[in-house]
Amino acid sequence: MLGKLRKLWRGEQGFTLVELMVVVIILGILAAIAVPMYLKNAETARENAALTSISNMKSVIDTWAAGTDGNGYYPDNTSITTAMTNAGINFSSIKDPWGNAFNYTPSGTPPTSYKIYCGPDTNGKYYEATNSSPAQQVASP
Hints:
Elements: H1 2-9, H2 17-66, H3 80-86, E1 103-107, E2 113-118, E3 126-130, E4 133-138
């Protein structure tokens, strides 16, 4: 069997320049298609990660307000870190997928509403949730 393969290959000297150029062109076309798709999917994944993080933090804040810690009120700026830490979130050092800090803004004394947000992303969009709205992408915080 090996002898037959050697006889078949004996006349071959290698690839021609045209064959190599065709392979390089095909690889270039495949890269031109694959790279933009990869970058788009990577950005979509970062957006989804930001929305998930905001949703999780919203759940922690709402649970805190409903429990004995909040007594019907949302955490203020001093107790938000405690509320998040109790849920296993290191709020003071956690970053969004673009490296920005998450921000919490309570309203009222004691707080009766809040906004938690992060961003901007590479397109200048922000991600926020309030006590009355779910996590969503917005133009500005």
